[in-house]
Amino acid sequence: MNVAKILILPALFISLILPVTGCQEEIPQTVTSVMLDETSVTMIKGSTHRLSAVVLPEGIETSLEWTSTDTLVATVSQDGDVLAVEEGQCRIWARSGAFMAVCDVEVLKVPDESIVLNETSIEIMPGEQFQLTATINMQEVRSEDILE
User: Fold this and answer.
1) What is the pLDDT of residue 62?
2) Which positions ≥6 away from 106 have C-beta within 8 Å?
3) Which residue, 83, 74, 117, 91, is CA-closest to 36?
4) What residues does the BIG2 domain cover (predicted)?
5) Comparing C-alpha atoms, which of 58, 62, 44, 54 is closest to residue 117?
6) Whose CA is closest to 105, among 31, 49, 62, 144?
7) Could you tell me if residue 10 is inside a domain?
8) Can you give the pTM of this predicted structure?
9) Tens digit of pLDDT at every position of the chain (148 positions)
């Protein structure tokens, strides 16, 4: 009988202490907010622009779903890169679960005579390189416009 008490008491002690000092269950964090770095942007047809999203709480692992309300006006990649397709207006949404952020996008036509760069702004560090692409748009010349 004493042997049984000796074995039961340590087992009982361990079973009571282990849940308190053992592995603690992690409470999963959920998204509480999604914000974009810009709430509106104006672009020239054919240009690109990157939107950045901030998800709170910081450090939470989540994926964002990027969508455009009108892909005929502007499209958006799953990295937040917006491509101005055609003149018009649309909205770009960044969504994580029930939380969303929006950026209003206005796409303007390319001026008749202009030079359009493929990027409107970039950040590079000293020593880094980046290649810009320039598109030159010229007004159509009609034969009646040419003076003799």
Assistant:
1) 83
2) 40, 41, 42, 43, 88, 89
3) 91
4) 30-106
5) 44
6) 49
7) no
8) 0.62
9) 555 555 566 666 666 665 555 556 666 678 889 999 999 999 999 999 999 999 998 888 888 999 999 999 999 999 999 999 999 999 999 999 899 999 999 999 877 777 778 887 888 899 999 888 888 776 665 555 555 4
- Whether 60 maps to a domain, the answer reads yes
Residue 81 placed within a domain: yes
Counting the structural domains of the chain, the total is 1
Output the CA–CA distances (angstroms, integers) from residue 27 to 59, 61, 64, in the order listed.
Answer: 14, 14, 21
Q: How many angstroms separate the CA atoms of 66 and 87, rounded? A: 20
Identity of residue 104: D
User: Residue 123's closest CA among 64, 37, 44?
Assistant: 37
Name the nearest CA neighbour of 100 among 29, 41, 31.
Answer: 31
CA dist., res. 74 & res. 105, Å (int): 8
Cis before residue 10, ω within 30 degrees of 0? no
Q: CA 74, CA 35: separation in Å to the nearest integer? A: 20
Range of the domain at 46: 33-110
In a domain, 130, yes or no: no
Residues in the chain: 148
CB atoms under 10 Å from CB of 129, counted, come to: 5
